[in-house]
What does this fold into?
Amino acid sequence: MPSLVGDIQERESKAPRSTQDASLGTPRNKADPTTGFPQAQHRSKSAFARAREARRNVPPKSDDIPVVQPTSEPSLAGPSTAAGSPSAHPPEMSEEELRAEISSQNEKRVREMSDSEREREREEIIERFGPGIVELMQRVKRRRVKSPSQEDNDPVLFAPGPYNEQREEHQASEGLNAPKPRITIPSIFNEPPLHTPQHHTRPSSPLPSALRSAAGTPSPKPPGRKPRFSTEPNEVYVYESAPSSPKRQPIALLGAPDPENPSPNQLIYRGPDPNLSKAREDDAMDLSSPVKEPSQSYQSFATAAGPGADHEEGTPEDIRRRFFPDADPNDPSLEWIKGNAPQAGPTPAKAGEEQPAKSVRYDLNGRPIPEDLRQSLPTHLGLHHHGDAQDEAGYTLDELIMLGRSTVPAQRASMLGTLGKLLSNAASSPAGEDGAVEVEDIRTKVLVTALEALAERGGVLIRAVDALWISTVDYARKRPSSSLDIATLVPLPALLRQLAVHLLPSAQELPPESLTQILEFILFLVSSPTIQNPTPDQIGSEILSTRDLIPSVLHTFVTSSTSSWTSSSSSSSSLPPNADAIALVDALARTSRTNAKTIVENGIADTFMMFVVVLPPSSTADNTKDNNVAHELLARTLDLYATLGQYGMYAITATTAADGFTALGKYVLDLITPGIFDLANQRNGWLAVTSYLKLLGVWMTCAIDPHKTTPPHEILWSQVTGWDWASQVFQLRRRLLRLLGDIESPHTEVGKRPIPPTVRAALAAVWHALAAWLEGSAVNSVKSGESERHRLIEEMAIPESRQTEDLALFQAVEEFNRSLDVLSRKPNGEVDIPDTLSSNGQVLLSAIRLGFACFPPESTPPAPAPFGPLSESNFHAILTLCNKLAFHPLWDELRNFPTYQILSLRPLSSLLAYATLVARRCGAQAMELKDWLKLSFGTMTCLIEGDEDLGSRVLEGITCSITKDAASELTSSGDKRIFSDASPEVWSQGGLPVILPFLQTALRRAHVKSREGGGEDEDDGPGIDESPPEIIAPLVTGRNSIREATTLCLPHSSTSPKGSSSTPRGGGYGLPLRRDWTFAPLDALLHSSTAPVFKVLPSDWDHSEVDVVRATLLLTRTLQDIVAVGTPSGFTSEVRPVAMNREEVVFGCMKVFMLEHGQNSNSSFGNDSATEVFRDAMIEREMARLLAPFRSLGRSTNPPPAANRNFPSSLERTALPYLGAATPFFQFYSDFLGLYDSVSFGHPTFGALLIPPLANSKYPIDYRKLLWGDYAHVLRHLAMEPTDIIGSDAKDWLYPVESDGELIGMYVKALGNGRLRGFLRWVAIHHVAFNIWPDLQEQSLSSFDPKAKAIGAEPTEASKQSRLMRSRKVLQAVLGNSNLSGVKEVVLYYQPKPNSNPALPPPMCFEDNNLGNWKQQRLEWVLTWGGEALGSRLQGLLSS
It folds into this structure.
């Protein structure tokens, strides 16, 4: 680097040093040249005077750059004569003599020093030159003692490496006696410039090697160099590896060619290469353009270097011959030009194999370079570098990440831009088509690299912000199902403080585009459902508590932008007002009630009042763009006020700014003109209309009960009546319907005019506002709002308006049906939910809500239909649609959906709840009671967090509808009365409303305490946290939610734990409900000490445990009988199961018996503990009826529902939500079995529940050993026949055949006592017989042994002998321990091949049935094993 060395100019010190100080390199004070001691400082002369005198003695500084002398002509003068040294060496001394003399003087001085002086000098040298100076001096010393040939091939490196422990030890052994290093300056730096014009004289000798030792004589410096310029095009020379920076001169490149003797390697410039120009134009990142195929971008370069090119050019030998012709071919200093060993060609990946992540290489546009083009691309593209694979073009991801942390700002900025392009391309490509590492891994690495660069400035900061935006905001738009844990990547407070610094008005240096990207990133942090950690509440609190962050955002994007935007002198470079700033504050308010209160108390919401008070002018052709911005700002502001109103806050604004909102109402009314129907230019105008109507509806809800606002009495219903908001809404409705009636548009396939979705959303907002008005009138007006309801009915009875509203609802129902039918599953398993499903669901929800509000409160007789905007045809169409929706398989995936999909389903769940309530109020006019209950049970498993209030009202309707009088109307599939055998005590004790508080509490999420810390009784189950629960506001604001809601956001981690295998919330509390939600009262009884329901029970609730269990089983059986009766009309062929499966029913019945576990000590009721709950006659009968459909061993078909991946058929996974991850089901089964042993007295249902976990095909051997070994004495009570077993196939207990010797011995022992009967005796005989007879063993091995199937070969001789030995021992044990009947059954037991035939039950499995000569074979085997003695005992049984 000649320019760098030439620019160095050492600053002279203020005072010369002594010879001794200079030799040691130790900083000293001004010393006397003769004595070496510091000169005395006299107080008579001030420090200022002494400094001025010293400056006079310093010679003037020269502006000339000193000439750097090469090492071949060193100026080896002795010590400085200015220091007064008397020992000046004559110039005729040789270099070796001078070095020897200096070395001897240094050694003598070191010998005369004490140990402390040596140590002090050593520390001072290290402090001055760094810890690497010792190693450097030792390396230079070793080099000096080498031979001249070695010295030429070993260049001096002036680059001290890192300091480590190994070097410390080396320094301690060598000391400080090594001579000082010398910096060699190659003579190549004094050569003429490389780009010498043609008429300039070239040196006759070739250029020496830049890596050669500089001991030779350098070429003389040409005097008077002057710049010259080319006059002809061919005087410009392009080298193959052009340097990236024009300021840096390349070293050891070819000089200008001689025109009289042209070289064959001379490159003549013939104009720009079109392919090269195109490649450079592609450097600009365009995210909107599709990613081109990489092979198209590089095909031209690969063709140029293809078979027609000189294969010798570019090889290591060619480079040595052209650039270092005098160097030895085997010179070790030229190893760098060889690079990696050349390959014959790229090694393609095998079929079916993915390309290794480290082998994927990208260009500077972030596109993968095809593997077959990496070694053929030219070097001037800038894709070759000094990485691991220098012969291949492109950069790996790790190399880009490393260069993205470079200390060179330009390089770092360039690589950050490349990383952003790479991630954008990878996120845009479908999964599996990018051919690189996982996109999520790329996203994480790019994000971390961008976050590290946020503290930089200039171009690096701009590129870092761009990469940050791409890896978060843009990535989430392209892949909404992704997840991000920002807390593990960077401390959130530090990140927010850094962003606040960049947004400060006094320190802004970013362009407007980067500032906007920062704003969008902050909005992403608050509102994106893809962030898993921290929670939205935590993120919002951190943002609001970060100093200067929100004020800077408001100043940059709202206040200053608005002033510059509205002024006529605003420049094009100024930022216009950005509605995302208002959306950010809105998102912060949605995170929690606490954050919303902070926004109100700090006056942040007042900042945006100017967009309400100062309204934009009427729309014209000249101000359409400005009006769109103004309407968007207005809509965002109204949305913010509506969000605050959902907490009951900031409603006082309706009073303080009453004039402004009155003017706003007139302005919104004027907006609904034919001109606004141009959706392309006036979409934001529709948003303003919809937002205004939404705000009115929220404020009217706040005015229903002024005591529930925060603070109370912020708005009163009398004010709502005085402002006459209802008349404004009616006027907006009339204007809107008149506009829709005047539309001239093509007819759709159904013969109706299509209504745009934006206009339909405005109509839905009208219906929501009218519903809120009716709900408030029912509470605060005369006669419960009777006059208001009549006014609405009369208003909607106008034929013109009725026709238009019917058209809007009809089209919404049709589009909803089509969207529901086209639901599909993506290749990655996600369900693709169309946007039209949510938007049309909002329209139907608003219509159903308005219809429900038309009912008088607490009316006893059913209300007539139609009502509100619902005509009779549309009403029945919506009910039919809700029947289809409630049983759609979509809801089975609810627990697996990401949060962004849950948000799109919230209108659908609310629609189902409101439709159920409306249908109940309509009575038989809508549907029969059985059909209504079926819809209600289906709706309960579709509710989402936030629907707790609606779910409570549906549960109230269910429990109140199932009465003694209604029992005769309810029939099951067998046309039998469901409640024909219900005890009269059920109705006398209150019926099903007894368990209503338990069911309503189960809708709320409970905070579960972990058991890991100990201190809690394991029998009590998971503990419940005492902290206030998080209450999510409903989609439709209610008068209770404005006081109780703590947040408007769903949790970012989806609605519940993903899948049944995840650790649940304990006890199954919270939405969405599982299918066994009717057993929730039993969960509360089992954990009565911690269940939250016992803290909220009404004061007049006085019932026993038996009453609760009776009502629970009655409700469960009603659900099972009603939902299992076919499917409603209009269903598709695929219907989700709503009834419980076998495992869910079995585990629910187990809970009934487990109520006796510790009952005497922990009873919370006053019933007689001497009588167990399960012995109640009605409870026994209800459990038997629940389990009857699943006792199907002898049946040909299995009852529905079938198990799927969301509802697995395993008791272990079914019990997980109740037990939690810390308690295994085996422990629960052990307690259950012990309870049976102690209190059952052979109860048949109790014993039947012990059998399912003994199935060989589903459960581990521990369950069987526990019963057959530790509790073998209870086997005599388990005498159930196969038809009484809870299961669908006996093969679950028979196969795979047991091979554990200990368990086989338990079977033999149980057969020997003669007390084993029924199904368990069959199981024991089966496994014992299969471990004896070879004919049965071959069947079992070929059908159920996966290892034998995989091997596909016959058993070895050793395995045959082992099996023979085992069979003999088992047979001897049977003959020695079993009675005659047991021996006979084991000897005569036979089963056909299990893979194609059903199992033969007793006594068929003991009969001959002419199924072959297996008896004769067994007799022969017995004779072989035991001889005549054993054969004679069995000959009578095995004879023909």
Remarks:
- Residues 1414-1438 form the longest helix (25 residues).
